[in-house]
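ARCHIVE CARD
CATEGORY: sequence design from structure
SOURCE FIELD: tokenized fold
FIELD CONTENT:
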């Protein structure tokens, strides 16, 4: 008997680790060296977790051998409270904080505790596809609101309001944004907050890149403006603290909680069912949040991330084909093929050709639930010299495609 996949997976996509990534692994087993720019994994590019965090875990290893509280160890939760209070979010206590095995697990848990079948969640387009997948897996419907390139990838609250209906339960706000690198202005965030208040929506603020901004871009915590509704703020150790493998994330609840008791109790029940999250990694949280913020060295002029971002911006400026809304935050560039430069361009086909011919792995823009297919995402994590080499190969591939289009207009051959 054929074993079928569950029908609940029908609308679930996570192409960042999908078909292209599997093909890249096949090519590596054949002996080819692949430059993988599809995932924001700092450790793969030589970034180290701060030493103080490693020492904190070593010194507390004995305390991490047993299960901890289902919400997480108190020092970690209290450190999150202190960070939020330093940002002006004063109504958070340790009881409002849940530690998870990365933000990914918490996204699943908060949606599972909230949604009835058919409920809708407003999710940005482009999005981090885990949000859309988790909504669908938990019986809901992801309704994508546009973050248009011509607006610098910032959403328009007035436009979003037209998508709200009686089944809408929540809105997801990803800031600083993955995949676009947008950092939202205060008026945008305030507009989203007022929308949530009017329609009694839960605000899910994904702020995992909160410490990564460039050239004076101001990160404004959503919880400081979403005070009239229930606001869940997500962050963790993976990106800012370069500790993806520790699998430590957190969500803190603020704002209006008077009528959210049943929901939060349900979330604690789900947290109890998985017993607890990785206890050892939690001992790094207090040191991470309370210690020296080395990420600022990396995103300032002369720092590794800043200089890699600069290399990408300069490479795009030299390109015959590419455009870029310069990322103001996070660790990605969301590149666009200039209108009219390659008629019939398709991001999926391009990504496969680039992998097969130039051994560079990128994430097609449509992987992030966009209605258009003329973008692709790369990470800013490689050093500038690697990115310069990568863009030379990208330009060569785009040149090849342009020559082929001139020879046979409208065709785009997919290399198998």
């Amino acid at each position: 008997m054929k074993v079928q996949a569950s029908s609940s997976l029908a609308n679930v996509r996570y192409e960042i680790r999908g078909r292209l990534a599997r093909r890249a692994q096949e090519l590596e087993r054949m002996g080819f060296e692949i430059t993988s720019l599809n995932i924001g994994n700092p450790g793969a590019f030589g970034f180290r977790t701060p030493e103080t965090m490693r020492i904190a875990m070593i010194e507390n290893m004995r305390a991490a051998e047993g299960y901890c509280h289902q919400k997480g160890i108190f020092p970690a939760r209290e450190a999150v409270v202190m960070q939020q209070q330093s940002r002006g979010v004063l109504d958070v206590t340790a009881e409002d904080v849940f530690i998870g095995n990365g933000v990914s697990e918490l996204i699943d848990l908060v949606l599972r505790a909230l949604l009835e079948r058919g409920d809708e969640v407003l999710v940005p387009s482009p999005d981090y596809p885990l949000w859309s997948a988790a909504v669908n897996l938990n019986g809901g419907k992801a309704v994508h609101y546009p973050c248009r390139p011509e607006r610098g990838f910032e959403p328009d609250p007035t436009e979003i309001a037209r998508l709200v209906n009686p089944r809408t339960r929540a809105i997801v706000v990803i800031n600083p944004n993955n995949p676009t690198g947008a950092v939202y202005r205060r008026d945008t965030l305030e507009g989203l907050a007022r929308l949530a208040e009017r329609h009694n929506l839960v605000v899910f603020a994904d702020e995992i890149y909160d410490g990564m901004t460039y050239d004076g871009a101001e990160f404004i915590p959503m919880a400081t403006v979403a005070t009239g509704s229930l606001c869940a703020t997500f962050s963790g150790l993976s990106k800012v603290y370069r500790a993806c493998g520790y699998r430590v994330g957190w969500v803190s609840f603020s704002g209006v909680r008077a009528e959210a008791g049943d929901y939060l109790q349900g979330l604690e029940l789900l947290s109890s069912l998985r017993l607890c999250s990785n206890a050892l990694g939690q001992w790094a949280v207090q040191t991470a949040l309370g210690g020296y913020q080395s990420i600022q060295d990396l995103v300032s002029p002369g720092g590794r991330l800043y200089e890699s971002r600069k290399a990408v911006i300069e490479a795009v400026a030299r390109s015959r084909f590419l455009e870029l809304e310069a990322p103001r935050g996070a660790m990605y560039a969301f590149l666009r093929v200039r209108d009219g430069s390659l008629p019939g361009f398709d991001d999926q086909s391009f990504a496969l050709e680039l992998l097969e011919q130039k051994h560079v792995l990128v994430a097609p823009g449509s992987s992030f639930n966009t209605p258009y297919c003329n973008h692709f995402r790369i990470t800013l994590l490689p050093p500038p010299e690697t990115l310069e080499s990568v863009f030379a190969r990208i330009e060569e591939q785009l040149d090849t495609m342009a020559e082929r289009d001139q020879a046979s207009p409208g065709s785009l051959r997919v290399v198998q």
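CARD ANNOTATION: The domain at 51-290 is CATH 3.40.640.10 (Aspartate Aminotransferase; domain 2). The chain has two domains: 7-47+297-406, 51-290.
SHELF: design records, drawer C
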